[in-house]
Amino acid sequence: MSVQPGWYVDPADPDTRRYWDGEGWIGAPIPVDATPPEGPPPPEPVPARTPAVAVPGAQPGQPAAEAQPEQPGGPGAGVQPEQPGGPGAGVHPGGPVGGQWPGYPPGAGHPQGPPPGWPYPTWPGRPPLPRPHGLPLASYGARLVARVIDFGVLVLLNAAVNGWFIWRLVGELAAPWNEYWRRVNAGEIRNTEPLPVSEHVSGLLVAILVIATMLWFAYEVPSMANRGQTFGKRLAGIRVLPVEADAPLGFGRATRRWSTLGLPTLLWYCCGLGLLLQFVDAVSPLFDQPLRQALHDKRAQTVVVQLPRTRPDPRTTTPRDRANPPGDTE
Question: Helices in 63-162 by DSSP H: which ranges?
């Protein structure tokens, strides 16, 4: 495998870039969102060498040996013990064997890691949970609490804006409902005559769903675009961020994220199909690894994180003087 020299994302640390010279990684890493310089990085300074000391009994003209720190315990104390289990027992799965990565020609060892595009060595045990932008992922419970709070706010908004249409719809459905119960009480269940449904029911239902969808859009998208939080998310202490950077979502990304979950509201008219799609989207974070993304998060490439709970430091908080309360003391 031959990879052209250039700046690539470091497989060991996806938040940084390093320069691949065609044989190995060189130079210091840079942040992944920084603009890499043209060409390879400047050479690192060569560490100072330990001054050489003369070896007693050395022949004239023989180069002096460098000073080595004496190992405690006498000769042979610095020899590394053999790994238990025989040769190769300490090699991690997927890693190089003897400094040699599989697939390279003999002698082309790459101790600093595999080239771009190669899988990195796997480690035994459960991998640690990701921390996007240094913050822990929000739990499903916190996300559910935030969504329930937002749902309550939307119910109040619909009661204020959609109340007249809902009252009209209930009035139009009262006639067929009363006729149905009259037939039940009279024993006319086998009556095949259709129930008297008003022609305004369909129009009222569509109007209610359209207004409810618009209210949801106006409530969620602007606040998510600017702060990454709705009222419910602020109370739950969570925030939505782009996967690639700690920055505001912006109007376009916030709209894409909302539309996956919000637009199916218009399909409630089709035998509750929209409600089924929203339920699948709502439970999808339970089955996603490792970022716990819902379907609307995957479409917008966002992640939900838990914000730290900051508490006032008692060492920097000015104590309150109860004898002299704030205010005019004249």
Answer: 140-161
* Cβ contact 41:26 at 8 Å: yes
Encoded tokens for 56: 């007693």
From the number of C-beta atoms within 10 Å of its C-beta (0-12, 13-18, 19+), residue 282 rates as middle
The strand pairing partners of 100, in sequence order, are 97
Rounded Cα distance between 206 and 266, Å, is: 8
Q: Return d(Cα 4, Cα 22) in angstroms, integer.
A: 6
d(CA 80, CA 7): 36
CB half-sphere exposure, 157, CA atoms < 13 A: 16
Instruction: Give the DSSP H or E segment for 7.
Output: strand 6-10
Burial 74-111 (b: 16+ CB within 10 A, else e): eeeeeeeeeeeeeeeeeeeeebbeeeebeeeeeeeebe
The tokens of 31 are what? 């942040």
- Return the residue matching tokens 């008219």: 269
pLDDT digits (tens, 9 = 90+) for 287-296: 998 899 999 9
The number of CA neighbours under 13 Å toward the Cβ of 209 is: 18
- Taking the CA of residue 103 as centre, how many other CA atoms within 13 Å lie in the half-sphere pointing to its CB? 9
At 137-153, the pLDDT tens digits run 999 999 999 999 999 99
| β-strands 65-66, 238-242 pairing | unpaired
**Number of residues that this document lists for the chain:** 330
Alpha-carbon gap, residue 228 to 241, rounded angstroms: 6
Candidate from 5-9, 276-280, 292-296, 317-321 with smallest mean pLDDT? 317-321
Any residues with CB less than 8 A from the CB of 241 and at least 6 apart, and which? 132, 133, 135, 228, 247, 249, 302, 303, 304, 305
Element spanning 214, H or E? helix 200-227
